[in-house]
Specification:
disordered C terminus; alpha/beta; Rossmann fold; Ribosomal Protein S5, domain 2; 2 domains; 4-stranded mixed sheet; single chain; 19 helices; 5-stranded parallel sheet; 440 residues
Amino acid sequence: MLARITSYALSGLIGYPVAVETDLTFGGASYDTVGLPDNAVKESKERVHSAIVNSGFTFPQKRIVVNLAPADVRKEGSVYDLPIAIGILAADGELPKAYAEKWLILGELALDGSVRGISGVLPMVIDACERGYTHIMLPKVNAEEAAIIEGASIIPVESLSEAVLFLRGLKRIEPQPFTSWSSERREYESDFALIKGQQAAKRAAEVAVAGNHNILMIGTPGSGKTMLARSIPSILPELSGEEALEITKIHSVAGLLRNSGGLVTTRPFRSPHHSASIPALVGGGTKALPGEISLAHYGILFLDELPEFSKSALEALRQPLEDGFVTVTRAAAKAQYPADFMLVAAMNPCPCGNYGSKQTRCRCTQFQIERYRNRISGPLLDRIDLHIEMTEVPYEELASKAAGSHRVRFASALRTQEGYSASASVRTASSATPRWARSR
């Protein structure tokens, strides 16, 4: 008795089908999983057994062999729980095998038989539809994420028993409605229009956004570097449908959409702590997952206290800043992720932070100042197009009732059908085509 259920796996952002072959034979009761499974896949034996029993079905007391093909590629994660359970029940005659084998099935099982969400659903569904797999059964919490792909019949299920009743034809489940893309302007925690003072820094930020240039803000504590950086997303151009889809794929693989679902509709703003490691920034780990630079794709990567990051972590940013992508290579995995982001960095002018301050005297020697600034290498600084110095804003200017900026949505005003073109007064020395324009 053999059943063959189709599931899916990911290598980076690229998916490929996995055949879950379940064979039941008479003999001593046993359960084996082959096909290079990792620990999470091996442990599915206990989850599947408990889920089948607690869903009201009889677990077959036979020799069970589950093969995950292709057998020469390592299988990871809990995505195979539901297809394995369906395969066991189909091979045991509990549901029509021919109908079950027509579906692509994804999902993790809880011990009570409920179906939990998984990571990476969107790139799996996109690749599956391109290969002709349009009938897909997956967890309900992932249905909204998958429904943005037109032409796919997405059946959301909440439990193993619900999936079995559907495959038996005893319960009708309406496919998840297709969600069309619509651009929306979102509200942000910090608005660029509310910033008072720092006219030169705001002008530099506008220029950087218009051409997607990297920017470094050097200033004393309290001069508004972090606030200005966190306000930049409010003047970024709106996402296109293609950009939103690519960003969502990366966030889906990273597991950031497991409980939210749907498209990412705003440009990312990522602000890792200065203790972040190289794998955290550029990607890595045993599964070669995306790092902060890929999660900031088509958005902003904000590095506060830039000299406090480890030198090796900062040097790892040089190639992605130049190429717009990063290739993560590990012993058991290799993946390529896009990393086309705008780098916004902030730093103090010296170790004590008061060099150039109009209010507090600097305590640092010239040697200490040079050593502090030399933590950032020349090649990395060469990739940052704009450097701007900032000092404290006078109290009178902060207390003024005048509007913070009359250039709200400056970058959006520069938007044309072909891309973004800044006026002659805001062009920088960089002659490269802005990446906002290239993305369109």
